Each structure stands twice: as structure tokens, then as C-alpha cells.
């Protein structure tokens, strides 16, 4: 593994590097679960691997990237047969989150593809190998960081915002992100139905289902169920609420249905999970 760490400089506040590096992983090599204090971008050069967030799993190949956000617990692992090689760039700064949001990279949508990867790969590899310690090379690297963001901001990763009209963004990602927002806002409503999402977005139900599956790898129902189970784990770990009360808080009218789904997902009942957490 090759890694550089950057000294903090008074010259850079809005956007600055923390670290950069490169690694060719061994089969099943993993990192995490881990929480970062800065943004960390990984770009896959070769091979395959999986990136896990709190609610999703993404399978990634060469030319794709994943972004780790500060405070988000993540885990990533190299493929057993074709382990990946990646380059990473850690960065922070006052405008970092705004830039990522503007180009469509969010905690809900932390993955994507590098624009014209074969042509852009040399820029990424050049950045990885540049000296981070001299003033001149650091200034060049700062410019390259903005160039890198421009490579992430292709048609599949440009978010609808004030400066860009709707017809210039990829609607699939906008629809998916809006569907996720609705799920996270209404998951606790016991009367909430999947078809309510397409109604609220004024989209054909089948079309939205197809778009969401293509973008996230999950169906809308699977995402809703996973999010409800995750929220219920938070209640089980941090409150004294009973199982029936927790079930209702996360949108289940029938505690038995909640218990069945929880056990299928976690391998134990909510009661067993709560007991196990208290014994830690």
C-alpha cells in the first residue's frame, strides 16, 4: 500500500487534501466497519469489490467509485476471485459537501462512474503519484482535485439544482434520490404504501420500480424494509420500548410481521437482539 498524508496549511480552507494512496488488494481483503472524519473517495482501477453502507451494498468494477462521508459507518471488501485495485483521495473543507451535493454525490447515492474512464485514468494516476509536500506540487494537486470533481460530475451524477435545469440531469438518479427521501420521511407511517411514492412523484409505478432497482440494486420494498429494520435496531438499542411499540414506530401494524421480518434480516428476533445488545 502506498499512502501520502498532507500537512494542514493556512493556504487551504475551502477544500484541501487529507490523504491519498493506492492499493492492490488481496482476495477478500476488507476495511471496516469504520467511521471517517473526512471525505474519502475510492476509484476502482482494476478488479472487483463490494462497498457496504448502513442500508445498502454496492458491487463495483473498474471505472466506478464510492464516496465515504464523514460520520457514516462503512465497510468495503475485495472480491475473492478478482480483487480490486483502487486509488483513494481523502479531503475536507468548507465547500467539500456543497460540491459533492451539486454534482449528485450524497450519502444516499455515494457511488458512480468516472466520466470517460479510459481517457481520464491518466489524470487520476498522475494525481496519485504527485509529490504532496512542495508548495508548487501542492498547488497543482489542488487544481487537479477540482478537475477530478468534474470527472465525477457526468450525466449520471449531476444533481438537479438551481444552476442546472431538469432536462440536463439524468432523471433516473433524481427520481431515485427523491424516492429515498420519501421513504425516510414516511417509513414510520403504518399506512404508507410503496405505490404512494410513485403517486407523490407523479411517475408510473412500474417505471419508478425499474429505475430504482437499476440504480440501487434493491427494490423499493427491499429498501423500505431494510430502512425500517435499521431504525428499529436504533430503538431497540437506545430505548426501553417494547417490541410492539417499536414495531409501530417503524411502520408495522402487526408486531408478528415485524418480528418475522426482523428475524429473517438479522438472524434473531427483536427480543433476542435487544437482550444481546444489553449484555455487551
From TrEMBL:
GO molecular function, one term: DNA-binding transcription factor activity
Xref: CDD domains: cupin_MmsR-like_N
Alphabetized UniProt keyword annotations: DNA-binding, Transcription, Transcription regulation
Domain HTH araC/xylS-type: 177-276
Highest rank taxon of the organism: Bacteria
The keyword Zinc-finger is assigned to this record: no
Record keyword Iron-sulfur present: no
Residues forming coiled coils: none
InterPro entries the record matches: AraC-bd (IPR003313), Homeodomain-like_sf (IPR009057), HTH-like (IPR037923), HTH_AraC (IPR018060), HTH_AraC-typ_CS (IPR018062), Tscrpt_reg_AraC-type_HTH (IPR020449)
Name of the protein in its database record: AraC family transcriptional regulator
Amino acid at each position: 500500500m502506498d499512502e501520502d498524508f498532507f500537512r494542514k496549511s493556512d493556504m487551504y480552507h475551502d477544500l484541501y487534501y487529507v490523504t491519498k494512496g493506492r492499493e492492490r488488494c488481496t482476495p477478500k481483503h476488507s476495511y471496516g466497519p469504520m467511521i471517517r472524519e473526512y471525505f474519502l473517495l475510492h476509484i476502482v482501477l482494476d478488479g472487483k469489490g463490494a462497498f457496504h453502507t448502513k442500508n445498502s451494498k454496492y458491487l463495483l468494477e473498474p471505472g466506478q467509485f464510492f464516496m465515504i462521508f464523514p460520520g457514516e459507518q462503512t465497510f468495503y471488501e475485495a472480491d475473492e476471485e478478482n480483487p480490486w485495485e483502487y486509488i483513494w483521495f481523502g479531503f475536507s473543507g468548507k465547500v467539500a459537501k456543497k460540491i459533492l451535493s451539486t454534482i449528485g454525490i450524497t450519502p444516499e447515492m455515494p457511488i458512480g462512474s468516472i466520466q470517460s474512464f479510459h481517457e481520464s485514468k491518466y489524470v487520476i494516476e498522475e494525481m496519485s503519484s504527485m509529490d504532496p509536500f512542495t508548495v508548487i506540487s501542492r498547488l497543482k494537486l489542488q487544481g487537479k482535485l477540482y478537475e477530478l470533481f468534474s470527472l465525477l460530475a457526468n450525466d449520471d451524477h449531476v444533481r438537479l439544482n438551481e444552476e442546472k435545469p431538469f432536462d440536463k440531469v439524468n432523471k433516473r438518479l433524481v427520481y431515485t434520490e427523491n424516492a429515498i427521501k420519501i421513504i425516510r420521511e414516511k417509513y414510520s407511517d403504518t399506512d404508507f404504501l410503496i405505490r404512494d411514492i410513485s403517486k407523490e412523484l407523479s411517475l408510473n409505478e412500474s417505471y419508478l420500480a425499474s429505475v430504482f432497482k437499476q440504480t440501487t440494486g434493491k427494490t423499493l420494498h427491499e429498501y423500505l424494509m431494510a430502512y425500517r429494520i435499521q431504525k428499529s435496531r436504533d430503538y431497540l438499542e437506545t430505548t426501553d420500548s417494547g417490541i410492539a411499540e417499536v414495531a409501530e414506530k417503524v411502520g408495522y401494524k402487526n408486531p408478528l410481521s415485524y418480528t418475522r421480518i426482523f428475524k429473517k434480516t438479522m438472524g434473531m428476533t427483536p427480543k433476542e437482539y435487544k437482550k444481546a445488545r444489553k449484555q455487551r
